């Protein structure tokens, strides 16, 4: 809550932890964080359609989830995207670069055992601590930057969803009305369970429901959403300098995660089949 009042020093992120655990989501649950690397054990990647959806084949073996369930996704577009992740791995499989695969594993195994309404309420709860709703009064330059950069996206969200959000310099944050929360609950309910997993993932990356919905609704780009989510950090970097390579790495990683989560949401909502396969010999 004291961000913006002291210079920040960003350190490199720790390496991924073992499979079966991972970052805490807004609902308190954990998503999968697979082992860091493994030697590539397959030559060819393909997709096939089964009874439960589209499957990923590594040579003649079908991909499984960490809980040994058959890896089956609901749309052909998503299957091709996941297959492309596996096909793009070189001699070593770098699991930490395969965000779509990890999201699919989370959707299939549902390690936190949450239902649709629990996912929705966890996402909407982020309104109470939304990054762009918390403002500083000083330094004046940062306060002005927040107003100029964050106010337009808040105004867009209020108009888009016909709600009142506002902002606050109080440590308690803005007072979000019950009607505003119910409106977002109703909107999120229009997404399927798979897409909701992706939405929650994007929210945890950006620390903002408002920025996440602006990104998913194609109102802002990934680059813009990430910049807005890191506004205070970037301001401090301009004043105090950055840690060599660490800030750039963190920025690129956040962009990759936000982009993957957004793509996941759209691919999970894709109903039409892909006529031309992207994976060709």
TrEMBL record:
Chief localisation class: mitochondrion
Top-level taxonomic group: Eukaryota
Compartments where located: Mitochondrion inner membrane
Membrane topology: Peripheral membrane protein
A Pfam family annotated for this UniProt entry: ATP12
InterPro entries registered for this protein in UniProt: ATP12_ATP_synth-F1-assembly, ATP12_ATP_synth-F1-assembly_N, ATP12_ortho_dom_sf
Sorted UniProt keywords: Chaperone, Membrane, Mitochondrion, Mitochondrion inner membrane, Transit peptide
Any single GO BP term: mitochondrial proton-transporting ATP synthase complex assembly
Any single Gene Ontology cellular-component annotation: mitochondrial inner membrane
Function: Plays a role in the assembly of the F1 component of the mitochondrial ATP synthase (ATPase).
Subunit structure: Interacts with ATP5F1B; involved in the assembly of the F1 component of the mitochondrial ATP synthase (ATPase). Interacts with FMC1.
Similarity field: Belongs to the ATP12 family.
PANTHER family: ATP SYNTHASE MITOCHONDRIAL F1 COMPLEX ASSEMBLY FACTOR 2 (PTHR21013:SF10), ATP SYNTHASE MITOCHONDRIAL F1 COMPLEX ASSEMBLY FACTOR 2/ATP12 PROTEIN, MITOCHONDRIAL PRECURSOR (PTHR21013)
Stated name of the protein: ATP synthase mitochondrial F1 complex assembly factor 2
Gene: Atpaf2
């Amino acid at each position: 809550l004291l961000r913006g009042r002291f210079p920040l020093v960003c350190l490199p992120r720790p390496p991924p932890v073992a499979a079966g655990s991972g970052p805490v989501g807004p609902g308190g649950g954990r998503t999968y964080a697979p082992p860091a690397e493994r030697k590539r054990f397959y030559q060819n990647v393909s997709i096939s359609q089964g009874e439960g959806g589209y499957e990923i084949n590594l040579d003649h073996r079908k991909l499984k989830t960490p809980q040994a369930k058959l890896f089956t996704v609901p749309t052909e577009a998503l299957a091709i995207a996941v297959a492309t992740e596996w096909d793009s791995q070189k001699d070593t499989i770098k699991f930490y670069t395969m965000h779509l695969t990890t999201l699919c594993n989370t959707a299939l195994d549902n390690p936190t055992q949450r239902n649709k309404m629990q996912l929705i309420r966890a996402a909407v709860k982020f309104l109470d601590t939304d990054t762009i709703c918390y403002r500083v009064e000083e330094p004046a330059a940062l306060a002005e930057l927040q107003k100029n950069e964050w106010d337009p996206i808040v105004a867009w969200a209020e108009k888009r969803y016909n709600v009142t959000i506002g902002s606050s310099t109080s440590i308690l944050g803005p007072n979000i009305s019950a009607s505003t929360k119910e409106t977002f609950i109703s909107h999120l309910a229009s997404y399927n369970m798979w897409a909701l997993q992706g939405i929650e993932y994007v929210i945890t990356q950006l620390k903002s429901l408002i920025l996440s919905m602006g990104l998913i609704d194609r109102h802002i780009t990934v680059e813009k959403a990430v910049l807005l989510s890191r506004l205070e950090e970037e301001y401090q970097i301009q004043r105090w300098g950055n840690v060599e390579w660490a800030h750039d790495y963190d920025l690129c990683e956040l962009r990759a995660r936000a982009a993957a989560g957004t793509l996941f949401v759209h691919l999970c909502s894709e109903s039409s089949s892909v006529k031309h396969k992207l994976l060709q010999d």
